[in-house]
């Protein structure tokens, strides 16, 4: 069975992602004519094959986790020559103003900005339209423009290219990130899409909340959310922020209305997040109350349970050995804390019994 697995490439670079089930793999083996009909039947009931599939699925999940972690911003460095704007004092001052409700030092401010930019670059599954190879002409032209910032990204993986790349962002984008941090400091979804800068995607966050909270959260789909947002766009506030982003990308008003999530919906995500925290706290409190109630019931049952002959004899034996009266609870604790026969009795229960015998 092992050599068959090796032949068909079972492993991280082989059938990982394809072998979703035993039957799927068996069909694959049959098509490739790697086994005859009798051996095919044997494989069908083989525990070894099931184990191989299980390991493959584990490996696939591990690889997916690694890719997800990478999208959230690991392995990012800045090119000092082309990032003078990001290194400047103005950005530090603006970031500190945005985060003025917290006390932060210089290192923490840099870290927060770095995290924000990483999330902008890695938050989406699609390849960004602003990511270019260093050899490409458009990339070289855009570097020369004073209106753009260039960020060096290491380990930026896409379907058609592995290795380092550079992301070109307009300076206004950095301002938008800082503005968004003011709205939703806990949000993880700042990203760039192929169709343009999509500043916030709170329905993913709400979707996760729905999964965790079950029926206690309102489930809302991206399409439904866009329709609701489009009906509010004439109010002015939503349109003002998103129109600014659309203008950066030279999009029409129709594209802007169809494609963008409005920034102030991030407040809804934060509200849902706080609701989740309150719900978790209430669940934890309920759990503690249930534990206390169970313990109280157990103590009551132990107190009312009739004394067995063995327990009574054990108490009498201890009294004879001590040759004295037990009048204090701490005396009972010292004497009976390691007594196996009376381990199901409370110390108060034992003291009551002692007083009853001593009378």
Automatic annotation (TrEMBL):
GO molecular function terms listed in the Swiss-Prot or TrEMBL record: DNA binding
Ranges in a coiled coil: 46-73
UniProt xrefs under InterPro entries: DNA_brk_join_enz, Integrase-like_cat_sf
UniProt xrefs under Gene3D superfamilies: Intergrase catalytic core
GO terms, biological process: DNA integration; DNA recombination
Keywords, sorted A to Z: Coiled coil, DNA recombination
Leader peptide range in chain numbering: none
Matching SUPFAM superfamilies: DNA breaking-rejoining enzymes
Protein name, UniProt field: Uncharacterized protein
């Amino acid at each position: 069975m092992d050599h068959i697995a090796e032949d068909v490439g079972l492993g991280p670079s082989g059938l990982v992602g394809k072998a979703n089930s035993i039957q799927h793999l068996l069909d694959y083996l049959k098509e490739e004519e790697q086994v005859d009909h009798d051996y095919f039947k044997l494989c069908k009931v083989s525990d070894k094959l099931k184990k191989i599939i299980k390991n493959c699925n584990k490996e696939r999940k591990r690889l997916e986790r690694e890719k997800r972690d990478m999208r959230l911003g690991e392995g990012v460095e800045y090119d000092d020559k082309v990032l003078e704007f990001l290194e400047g004092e103005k950005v530090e001052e603006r970031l500190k103003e945005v985060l003025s409700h917290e006390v932060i030092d210089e290192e923490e401010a840099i870290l927060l900005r770095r995290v924000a930019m990483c999330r902008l670059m890695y938050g989406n599954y699609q390849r960004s339209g602003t990511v270019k190879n260093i050899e490409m002409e458009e990339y070289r032209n855009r570097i020369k423009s004073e209106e753009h910032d260039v960020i060096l990204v290491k380990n930026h993986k896409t379907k058609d290219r592995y290795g380092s790349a550079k992301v070109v962002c307009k300076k206004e984008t950095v301002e938008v990130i800082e503005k968004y941090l003011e709205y939703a400091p806990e949000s993880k979804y700042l990203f760039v899409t192929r169709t343009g800068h999509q500043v916030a995607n709170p329905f993913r966050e709400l979707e996760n909340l729905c999964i965790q909270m079950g029926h206690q959260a309102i489930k809302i789909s991206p399409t439904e959310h866009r329709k609701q947002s489009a009906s509010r766009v004439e109010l002015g506030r939503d349109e003002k922020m998103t129109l600014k982003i659309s203008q950066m990308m030279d999009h029409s008003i129709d594209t802007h209305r169809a494609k963008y999530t409005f920034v102030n919906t991030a407040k809804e995500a934060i509200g849902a997040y706080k609701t989740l925290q309150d719900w978790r706290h209430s669940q934890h409190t309920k759990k503690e109350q249930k534990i206390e109630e169970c313990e109280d019931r157990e103590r009551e049952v132990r107190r009312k349970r009739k004394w067995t002959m063995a327990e009574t004899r054990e108490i009498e034996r201890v009294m004879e050995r001590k040759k004295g009266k037990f009048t204090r609870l701490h005396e009972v604790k010292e004497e009976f804390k390691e007594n196996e026969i009376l381990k199901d009795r409370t110390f108060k229960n034992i003291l009551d019994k002692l007083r009853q015998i001593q009378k």
